[in-house]
Amino acid sequence: MKAVNWNKQDDLTFMYWRQNIAQFWVDTEFKVSKDIKSWNEDLNDKEREAYKKVLAGLTGLDTQQGDKGMPLVSLHTEDMRKQAVYSFMGMMEQIHAKSYSTIFTSLIPSQETDYLLDEWVPSNPELQFKAKLIEDYYMRLFKPEVPTYDLYMARVASVFLESYIFYSGFFYPLYLAGQGKVTTSGEIIRKILLDETIHGSFTGFDAQEVFKTLTAEEQERAEKEMYKLLLDLYENELKYTKDIYDEIGLYEDVKDYVEYNANRALANLGYPGYFEDKEINPIIENAMNTNTKNHDFFSVKGDGYVVSMNVESIEDEDFIFE
Predict the structure, then answer these.
(1) Cα-based angle 271, 141, 59 (whole degrees, multiple of 5)
(2) Distance from the first to the final alpha carbon of the chain
(3) Which of these is catalytic: 16, 86, 100, 172?
(4) Neighbouring residues of 127: CB distance < 8 A, sequence distance ≥ 6
(5) Which residue ranges form the domains of the chain, and what is each CATH number?
(6) Residue ranges in the chain whose pLDDT is less than 50
(7) What is the DSSP letter of 275?
(8) CB-based contacts of 34: which residues, under 8 Å, 6+ apart?
(9) pLDDT value at position 10?
C-alpha cells in the first residue's frame, strides 16, 4: 500500500485536479421540465428524433468511458495524483451518463427511453463500431503487466473519444439551445462539453508524457497507429452523422464540427491538425466561448441552478503547455 502525497501543488496535475473540482456539478441542479413546452412546440418530429438519438448515443459512450475507460487508464498510472484525477473524471462520466436520462425522463415517455437505450444503442452499427474500436485499446490494460506502448495508445483512444467523437452528439443540443430551444437541456450538454474539454486536455498531457518514454521505433509505430485510428473513427463518424443529421439539413455543419474537433484532439496529443481549418457554425462557436466572470460558463441559467462564486476563472493561457 502507498499513500498519495498532494504536498507538491504547483504543477499541471494539481492544476487539473483543481479545475475538475471547480467544474463539479450534478444533473439535479437543472430543472429540465422547463423544456417541455419548447420540446413540444419548437421541434418537429424529425428534429425530436435526431435529438433523442444523439442523446442515446452519448449515453452509451459516457457509460463506456465511466465503466472502462477512466478506470483502466488509471489502473497502470504510476503517479497517484494522476490516478486521482482520472478517478474523479471517471465519476463525472457517470454523472454525464445519468444526465441524459434526466433529460429523457422529462421529455419523453419511459418506453421510448427504454427502446433507445436498450435496443437502438446496442443495434446501431456505427455506435457499436466506435465503441468497440476504443474499448479494445482500454481492454489491453486489463492485466497485471502492460507495455508502455499500450499505455500510450489507450490514452490516445481516450483523447479521441473525449475531444473528438463525443462532439457530433453535442452539436444538436447546443445548436438548438443557441436558438432559444430546449435551453435547460442545452445547458446540461454544455456542462458536459466543458468537462470533456478538460478531460481530453489532461489525458493528452499525460499521453505526451508517456510518449517521451517510448523508443524511437515505438514512437514511429504509435504515430502511424494514431493516424489510422483517427481516420477509421472519422469514416465511421461520417456515416453516423449522415444517418442522424441529413434529414434535418445539418450534415455538412456537423461534419465540419467533427473535423474541427479531430484537429483539437490531435493538438491535445501534441500534433498539428490533419483536416482543413474551416469556420464552424457560429451558434456552436458561441456556445464554446468560455469567457465568463465566475466560471459557471452559462449564457442562460436555469432556475434550479446556483453557481458557486468561490471559483477562479479559466484563461486560454491555462491550456498552453510547453
Answers:
(1) 75
(2) 34
(3) 100
(4) 57, 60, 61, 121, 240
(5) 32-292 (1.10.620.20)
(6) 292-313, 321
(7) S
(8) 183, 184, 302, 303
(9) 63
For residue 179, the tally of other CB atoms under 10 A from its CB is 11
- Cα angle value 83/136/223 (rounded, 5°): 80
Residue 87 CB burial class (10 angstroms; 0-12, 13-18, ≥19)? middle
How many Cα atoms within 13 Å fall on the side-chain side of residue 90? 17
Query: What one-letter code names the amino acid at 115?
Result: Y
The answer to whether the beta carbons of residues 93 and 62 sit under 8 Å apart is yes
Please name the helix (run of DSSP H) or strand (run of DSSP E) that holds residue 299, with its range, or none: none
C-alpha cell at 57: 448515443
Length of the chain: 322
pTM of the model: 0.88
Contact 128/93 with Cβ under 8 angstroms? no
Dihedral sign for Cα atoms in the order 7, 9, 12, 14: positive
Q: What is d(CA 64, CA 198) in angstroms, rounded to the nearest whole number?
A: 18
Spatial separation of the C-alpha atoms in residues 272 and 270, rounded to whole Å: 7
- Find where cell 471517471 sits: 90
Question: How much is the pLDDT for 8?
Answer: 74
Listed residue (59, 120, 71) closest to 95, CA to CA:
59
Catalytic, 137? Answer: no
Residue ranges of alpha helices (H) inside 140-290 are: 148-160, 167-177, 183-211, 216-245, 251-268, 282-287
Instruction: Indicate the angle between helix axes 216-245 and 125-139, nearest 10 degrees.
Output: 160
274 in Cβ contact with 262 (< 8 Å): yes
Kindly report the CA angle at 277 between 271 and 281, in degrees rounded to 5? 125
Q: What's the pLDDT score for residue 316?
A: 55
Nearest Cα to Cα of residue 130 among 39, 233, 231? 233
Judged on CB neighbours under 10 Å (0-12, 13-18, 19+), 308 is exposed
Instruction: Report whether 319 contacts 201 (CB < 8 A).
Output: yes
